[in-house]
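Continuing the batch. This is chain 6 of the set; chains 1 through 5 are on the previous pages. Same settings as before, nothing changed between runs. Recording input and output for traceability.
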Amino acid sequence: MLHLVKKFNGLGMLMTLPTIDDQALRESAQRFGETLAAAVAPGDPDGEGSFGEVMDAILDLTAVVPDGIQDTDLKHLLKLTVEARDAIAAGDRVRALETNAYCRLLLRRILEHSAIGALDDPTTAFAAVEATLPTASTKDMAKLLGVSEKTISTWRAGGTIERGAARVTTIAQICHHLRSTFTGTGILGWFDTSTRQLGKRTPLEAISQGDAGDVVEFASRIHG
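Output for chain 6:
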């Protein structure tokens, strides 16, 4: 039981993610996570009474979660929160802690989905690729994004991303999936490594041949 408390107390696991999600969402997630952890903590003799604040926090979270997530993950999160409250009422702290752990994982997924949604914007996506690959040269970026080095320099100077925007968002999504498994250098190498999952092609070859969706799916499976 103490292992679960140490592992899931606070939002350290969540906040280490280099997400690009909305500040209000992160703040609401932080508040919900902290109030739920406090309510189920073994040292809190009045955990059941603390759930009023927990329910207020999840209602605030509902108001800022992007459309498309609300009808699935958020409903599940609410169900688990009620289960944690019922477990506390029944004096079952172990079950309450387990439910809290599941809530943490679900909350992480909500933040993850929000971050991926933000990558639909080419400008945000380009900034995300640059942040994920800090050691990439202009030549590396040009090869990865399928444009000239001059275009990369223009984008870095704030130029509008129009031609090649779809590839920029695709590469950003792939980098987002890979960033917790590989370093920036490792991600660059991954794009140039042939794999049987892509028909013995490299990810860049598959993208150039019109199979970007397969590469995104492959990267998401690596992320798990």
